[in-house]
Write a structure and sequence with these properties.
Distance between the termini of chain B: 74 Å
Helix content of chain A: 55-70%
Largest sheet of chain A: 2 strands, antiparallel
Oligomer: heterodimer
Radius of gyration of chain B: 26 Å
Structural class of chain A: mainly alpha
Structural class of chain B: alpha/beta
Largest interface: A-B, 45 and 55 residues
Strand order of the largest sheet of chain A: 1-2
Strand content of chain A: under 5%
Largest sheet of chain B: 6 strands, mixed
Shape of chain A: flat
Number of helices of chain A: 16
Chain lengths: 344, 466
């Protein structure tokens, strides 16, 4: 660290700002020479100033730069959210005059077993959409991340492909795979596991994990790609140092790779957790929330209440609660990561 | 210096936060109610004299453009029929130009609500029956009551009374099944079981005519290793119809319709028996293995390919597919009634009715178009496209022993008996949600018949009270 500071002060003229003719060493206590030293010190670090322009240097300038973005943000995000807050306090079918009902929609939300179950299912899906892809992504990054294997970049492209597909296409395909006479059951029968074949999406216990695995399949490639990029940033010296210290591949992974991937882990965790909580397409196309209510999720309930039950107020309330939940969970993930990585 | 900067920073932050809050409050205070639809110009149709032979109505002499919206694009047969009817009407009345817009059902459902209550509604458009599709539109004043036209054109005489009830709503949109008539339908829908003649013949089974014979046939088929009922309930809605058919065998048609209209109850012995019977069929293995995970249309495809003796939830909408796949090797029966229950019901309805906008410029012309489209002109097209015309079917029109012929004869019987009891998801807005989930749980063995009945009744009570 000392090295860096000295180069800023002494200066080679390239990396440091223009220096005064009198070199000042910041390691020495400031000499009480009054204004001239202050001026010199300041002039070392402040750029040459042109005469002040009222517009450019007014204290409102930053806000003017922010204004276009703020306007868009206000119009596209704040305004709809504010309106949603209002609608959630109404009983409204979408076309007739609404009726103000205060917090009744929120009370109903927390007392309706179907809606509560939908949130529970969304949390369960975090395991499938987030934890499993991270696990698989790490394993694959460890194997395929360093270009040492032949064809590893081809493999990475292939494994990333599911993430690129439209979710509806994915869901329709998996619906076929899971169907009672579909390829999954056929494959299981062919290897002698005919006993466990079943109607996967029609089973009250297994439907949610089955749908969850669709999410795993979609997202593990995303995790893998990010982790591979992260792994390639880790300097080889660290691995060499670890090997010299006598650690095998697993310990290198835990003590070199994982810490080096902490930023990528954070990004993947936040993105996949949000994907889990707000999932809609996959459930809608495969099970529609069934069988019974065993795979319903909040976004599906929003859709149902808005368009099938003509209960727009309730739908909006669910949507807002979901948004708050997403925000909170993302916050928890970030805080946990910060805390875990601060120990490094 | 630093303290002053911090102070300014705090003030700027405060200003920023206040601005954001102001924006959000402005959004809240924003007028959220949709532009109120103007009250219908005429709650009664215009005072013009009904057209008789001597006096032609005004609209016959004017150049008129009519906008028609429908949802029949997905079914090629129906799509063709609607188009033909529109073309024929324009030929009859060259002064009338009809612009048609058609969308698939899923999209149409959301579009029509906003369009019909918005600034420039279409003149003639399909709605639906029941609370989900039509109630809100009636409540919003978007639909013209058609009572005077019904009297004038004699629509009341066309259809049996119980069937007509599905076209009625009270003016506030709260009570389905009575009040004003808000639409008329071109086609009909009927549900039963298509059957595979070959498989039945090989099993030595005659086409069942009573419920007991039907159950015996299922048992025989299962014992021989055939799939008794090919059926797919992954999409959940077929379950409603499957249960509905069993319910109709045990129930009374007037009571079943009263339930649909919000005046009945689900807590009846008949429903308990039906629920128990549905579970019994599942436990006996009468349905194809894994039906809970099989898609409805996948099941239909498998039936057409020769798997399964009976096709569950064999609706009239499948007729063309069955005819083209199996032809005369297939037939159609309603779920046969029990001899002890002469007041049996049949699962079926009219197709989505066409309604007239309350703010339409030429209601008389639209009523004439509606009368034409739903009248005998539709019969030829319906017959050509394996469909059921809502009205006007004559004995001599009926084809022979084909699936379509069986279907039409069944429809005639149902109309003679006035046994149509519609679909369970029409009873109230949340009915689709509640019923699909409950039936899936019943058929999945997750609840007892009693729990099922109580759960259904709870959903019903939430909407209507006791």
């Amino acid at each position: 660290m000392e090295v860096e500071r000295k180069s800023a002060v002494g200066g080679d003229g390239i990396t440091s700002p223009p220096t005064a003719s009198v070199p000042v060493d910041l390691h020495e206590p400031p000499v009480a020479t009054g204004r001239r030293v202050d001026e010199q010190r300041r002039s070392q670090f402040e750029p040459f100033r042109k005469p002040r322009s009222a517009l450019v240097h007014s204290r409102w300038t930053p806000y003017l730069y922010l204004a276009p973005g703020l306007l868009l943000f206000g119009a596209l995000i704040l305004f709809p959210v504010g309106r949603a807050l209002w609608v959630s306090l109404l009983k409204w079918d979408g076309i007739s005059p609404p009726q103000f009902v205060g917090f009744q929609n929120y009370v109903a939300l927390f007392s309706d077993p179907t809606i509560v179950a939908s949130f529970r299912h969304a949390l369960v899906l975090i395991v499938f959409y987030s934890a499993l892809p991270i696990l698989f992504g790490l394993i694959l990054a460890a194997i395929l991340g360093t270009d040492r294997m032949r064809g590893s970049s081809v493999m990475r492209t292939i494994l990333f492909f599911p993430y690129v597909l439209p979710l509806v296409v994915v869901a329709v395909t998996w619906k076929w795979i899971y169907s009672p006479q579909g390829p999954l059951n056929a494959a299981l029968s062919s290897i002698g596991l005919g006993g466990i074949t079943r109607a996967w999406l029609g089973d009250f216990t297994l439907a949610l994990p089955s749908v969850g695995l669709v999410g795993t399949w979609v997202l593990f490639g995303f995790a893998m790609v990010l982790f591979v990029a992260g792994v390639q940033k880790i300097p080889q010296d660290l691995y060499d140092a670890a090997r010299v210290d006598g650690s095998g591949p697993f310990r290198s992974f835990v003590h070199v790779t994982l810490p080096g991937l902490r930023n990528e882990l954070l990004v993947v965790a936040v993105v996949t957790v949000i994907a889990a909580l707000r999932t809609f397409d996959v459930i809608y196309v495969t099970t529609r929330g069934g069988p019974g209510r065993s795979t319903t999720v909040p976004s599906l309930e929003v859709f149902r209440r808005a368009f099938e039950r003509s209960d727009v107020g309730q739908a909006t309330a669910i949507g807002l609660v979901l948004a708050v939940l997403v925000f909170l969970v993302a916050l928890v993930v970030i805080v946990l990561f910060r805390r875990a990585t601060d120990d490094q | 210096m630093e303290e002053k900067t911090r102070l300014w920073q705090r003030r700027r932050a405060a200003v920023a936060v206040l601005t954001l809050l102001a924006l959000m409050v402005a959004a809240c205070a924003e007028e959220v109610t949709p532009e109120p639809t103007e009250p219908p110009v005429d709650t009664e149709p215009a005072d013009e004299a009904p057209p008789d032979e001597e006096v032609a109505p005004d609209w016959v002499n004017q150049e008129i453009t009519i906008e028609v919206w429908d949802l029949e694009v997905t079914n090629p047969g129906r799509n063709a029929v609607i188009q033909t009817l529109i073309d024929q009407f324009q030929d009859l009345y060259p002064n009338v130009t009809i612009e048609r817009r058609t969308e698939p059902f899923e999209d149409y459902r959301t579009t029509i609500r906003l369009a019909s209550t918005g600034d420039d509604p279409p003149d003639l458009f399909q709605t639906g029956q029941g609370h989900t599709h039509t109630g809100p539109l009636v409540a919003a004043g978007a639909l013209l009551p058609l009572n005077t036209y019904a009297d004038q054109y004699g629509w009341w005489d066309r259809y049996p009374e119980g069937a007509v009830q599905q076209l009625l709503f009270t003016e506030d949109g709260q009570d389905f099944g009575r009040g004003n008539i808000y639409g008329v339908s071109v086609m009909g829908e009927l549900v039963g079981f298509f059957y595979n003649r070959t498989i039945l013949a090989e099993a030595g089974i005659e086409v069942p005519t009573t419920f007991e014979e039907f159950e015996a046939a299922l048992a025989t088929l299962r014992d021989r290793g055939e799939i008794p009922i090919m059926f797919g309930n992954l999409d959940q809605w077929p379950g409603i119809i499957m249960f509905g058919q069993i319910q109709n065998v045990y129930g009374d048609r007037d009571e079943l319709r009263a339930y649909m209209h919000g005046e009945g109850t689900f807590d009846t012995d008949a429903n308990r028996q039906a629920a128990a019977k549905a579970q019994e069929w599942v436990e006996n293995g009468y349905f194809v293995d894994g039906f809970a995970g099989l898609g409805y249309f996948d099941a239909v495809s498998q039936f057409v390919e020769g798997e399964g003796a009976f096709l569950g939830v064999g609706g009239s909408w499948l007729t063309s597919q069955i005819e083209e796949g199996l032809g005369e090797d297939a037939g159609f029966i309603l779920l046969p009634p029990r001899q002890e229950n002469p007041a049996w019901g049949a699962t079926g309805s009219f197709s989505s009715p066409f309604a007239i906008s309350a703010r339409a410029d030429n209601p008389d012309a639209l009523a004439a178009l509606l009368d034409f489209m739903t009248g005998e002109a539709a019969v030829a097209g319906a017959l050509a496209n394996y469909d059921i015309p809502a009205f006007g079917l004559r004995e001599e029109d009926l084809p022979g022993a084909t699936p379509h012929g069986d279907l039409l004869r069944a429809w005639q019987l149902v109309q003679e008996e006035d046994a149509l009891v519609y679909f369970l998801d029409w009873a109230y807005p949340a009915a689709f949600d509640v019923t699909t989930a409950n039936v899936a749980e019943l058929m999945g063995g997750q609840v007892t018949p009693e729990e099922f009945v109580q759960s259904m009744q709870a959903g019903y009570r939430d909407q209507f009270g006791d």
